Amino acid sequence: MQQLRGATAMVTGASGGLGMHLARRLAGEGMNVALVARRAQALELVAGELRGAGVRAEVIPADLSNAEEIDGVVERAEAGIGPIDLLVNNAGVEATAAFDAYTSAEIQAMVAVNLTAPMLLTHRLLPGMLARGRGHVVFISSVAGKLGTPYSEPYSATKAGLVALGQSLRIEYDHAPVGFSVVCPGFIAGDGMYQRMVEDGHRSNRLMGETTVEKVVECIVDAVRRDRPEVIESGAPIRPILALNQLAPGLVERLAPRFGIKKLFGGVARDRDRAGV
User: Fold this and answer.
1) CATH code for 8-275?
2) What is the C-alpha separation between 143 and 225, in angstroms, rounded?
3) What are the domain boundaries of the chain?
4) Residues with active-site annotation
5) Over the stretch 155-180, which tens digit does the pLDDT of each residue have?
6) How many angstroms separate the CA atoms of 33 and 11, rounded?
7) Distance between CA atoms of residues 210 and 207, nearest Å
8) Which of 27, 81, 111, 237 is least buried, going by the fewest C-beta atoms within 10 A?
């Protein structure tokens, strides 16, 4: 989908973080944007910025953990800015804890928002894209979806699900005029869950790396324009480790303590336990 100007996009999780920055970037390309998130007031602020850039912006407050809201989200978006050409499934729920310490509600919420909602939104919008002969869907996964992280099992599992979903769709619709991309960021400095970790004294290292929201946004735009199947942006040369994990998972498992990932997320989980969350 090389021509973005004049097209329409829906970005979930658009009230802050990566979603907000991406919405601004798409508006800068001349795209009209439907902004989806739970916080209506925050969405209005973002929409004001986008309208100031000369594009249409539609505010759609919604709780994507409720599957019954999916049809209404699409209907309001298309009534406000027209048929959706680009869907960016960005909304996500994150939590870090020992697996046996998660509540059932926390697990269900992560599955609903991180995996079920993207699948349902894609399922709802894909027929229109196919009929119009134009469209692209982006799934914002994570490096955790390529190599599961300890103390983040529900999150890793849902993000891995997005990777598989994108792969399956690309194979099934390989000759269709609709593209599918999966973007897998690592730790994004300055925003979101990782920033909260840093503020609490937990930081990545050179092996795991960290990236910026600007780099991830550019990866997303490039993936749409070039119909890239998968993009990994972590700020570190992590692809060899991911490739080795496919060939020798037992070896990567033994090497994992050297990466520092268990120590990092274990510290976050212990903080949560001490706080009684």
Assistant:
1) 3.40.50.720
2) 22
3) 8-275
4) 155
5) 999 999 999 999 999 999 999 999 99
6) 7
7) 9
8) 237
